[in-house]
Design a protein that fits this description.
Ribonucleotide Reductase Protein R1, domain 1, two-stranded antiparallel sheet, 456 residues, Fumarase C, Chain B, domain 1, 4 strands, mainly alpha, 3 domains, 19 helices, Fumarase C, Chain A, domain 2
């Protein structure tokens, strides 16, 4: 295939250099966006008097036929083409003749690829947002079924205080809502058209950039043509947001992996989302959750690759920027795959409330409530803290829980202890008395559920 930029050069480029320079094997993913952008560009050229109506019709029909043939499989991508833009233009010229060569008037591949990538990432990000909404809804549904399921809350992976399973799940709902907010916010900033910036300096033609931007669903145009072709901030923002999504999924995966182990056995994963061992017949491995956890690092790497690629680039366009696509494609595709598998895995996961409660009853997670009991009877908190710590130490040595200690032993530590302490340190009471907003208390959890529902 003859290079579109042939003319200046006296000899052909080296075959290895051609292969190294080519991006068709990955940027062919942008074919729909490239054709859509070209159709609107051609329509604008006609409105501006640069193309006549007959030329527009030929170009539009030709582009439509290329799209149809690519979609049906009747047309294969030419791997000898330098990139998707050159492929589409060459195929168009092959089909309609020299009129096809007029399509590239008043634009450059620099603003063309910037447009294609923005269109692609806008569509993909909207899909991620929808998946996040489904995940949030699935997590919320599980929470609503477990508002009275008591489990130990942890700090340092040590049993700390009693909470409800719903309260724990709602923490992830809040994370996912922030993920949605970050992506929507990034979409607002990226939704400006670079088309018409041309190579970097604009064009001498009297074009109408605003009408093309509006036709393509943008909120406006990039106001500086140099910025239009060199900006990849939106890639960084989206990759950072995707990395944060993956971090949240990885944390959730880690807990599901722990919860599904025999050491915890708080949940049972559905057989459809686990695997077995090639040698140990008893195994039921949480491989889907482990893969999600593992793929988090991959998305981190995509972000770092893009940041590093951009850090030393002078304005405006440089070939280094070809490296943005594989990273950003991989980032969004990985997030979508992980969300797509995570949602049904969560929907089919079965909590085991009796095991959560049994774990909550061991580990002295009501010790803080026992200290609060003393404080409310006039004992300074630090003194109460020391008394309860001493009692816990005795319980550890004797193998008892706090509610198994007889009243006379309590009174040996402080005369203010009375029979009402047993009601105060029951796990149900510990939950119910958490009345601050955002807490694990039953009323607070209801408020959190209502909040998530309203946000969705």
């Amino acid at each position: 295939m003859e290079k579109m930029w042939a003319g200046r050069f006296e000899k052909a480029s080296d075959r290895l250099a051609d292969d190294f320079n080519s991006s068709i094997h990955f940027d062919k993913k942008l074919y729909k966006q490239d054709i859509k952008g070209s159709m609107e560009h051609a329509a604008m050229l006609c409105r501006s008097g640069i193309l006549n109506i007959q030329e527009l019709a030929k170009i539009s029909d030709g582009l439509a036929s290329i799209l149809e043939d690519l979609e049906s499989g009747a047309l294969d991508f030419d791997e000898n083409a330098e990139d998707i833009h050159m492929f589409v233009e060459a195929e168009l010229t092959k089909r309609i003749g020299d009129t096809g060569k007029k399509l590239h008037t008043a634009r450059s591949r620099n603003d063309q690829v910037a447009l294609d990538l923005r269109l692609y990432m806008r569509e993909e990000t909207i899909e991620v947002v929808e998946l996040l909404k489904k995940l949030t809804a699935a997590t919320l549904s599980l929470a609503k079924k477990n508002t009275e399921t008591i489990m130990p809350g942890y700090t340092h992976l040590q049993r700390a205080q009693p909470i409800t399973f719903a309260h724990h799940l709602l923490a992830y709902c809040m994370m996912f809502l922030r993920d949605i907010s970050r992506l929507v916010d990034a979409l607002l900033r990226m939704n400006y058209s670079p088309l018409g910036s041309c190579a970097l300096a604009g064009t001498t033609y009297n074009t109408d950039r605003d009408s093309v931007a509006a036709a393509l669903g943008f909120d406006g145009i990039m106001m500086n043509s140099i910025d239009g072709v060199s900006d990849r901030d939106y890639c960084i923002e989206l990759e950072a947001a995707f990395a944060t999504v993956m971090m949240h999924l990885s944390r959730f995966s880690e807990e599901i992996i722990l919860w599904s182990s025999w050491e915890f056995k708080f949940v049972e994963l559905d057989d459809a989302y686990t695997t077995g061992s090639s040698i140990m017949p008893q195994k039921k491995n949480p491989d889907m959750a482990e893969l999600v956890r593992g793929k988090c690092g991959r998305v981190y790497g995509d972000l770092m690759a893009t940041l590093t690629m951009l850090k030393g680039l002078p304005l405006a366009y440089n070939k280094d920027m070809q490296e943005d696509k594989e990273a950003v494609f991989d980032s969004v595709e990985t997030v979508k795959k992980c969300l797509t598998i995570f949602i049904p895995m969560l929907e089919t996961m079965k909590p085991i409330p009796e095991n959560m409660l049994a774990a909550a009853k061991r580990g002295f997670i009501n010790a803080t409530d026992l200290a609060d009991y003393l404080t409310k009877k006039g004992i300074p908190f630090r003194t109460a803290y020391k008394i309860v710590g001493t009692i816990v130490g005795e319980c550890v040595r004797s193998g008892r829980t706090l509610d198994e200690v007889p009243l006379e032993e309590y009174k040996a530590h402080s005369e203010v202890f009375d029979t009402d302490l047993y009601g105060e340190i029951s796990l149900e009471t510990c939950i119910r008395k958490r009345i601050s907003r955002g807490s694990t208390g039953y009323e607070s959890v209801k408020e959190q559920i209502a909040y998530v529902e309203a946000q969705l």
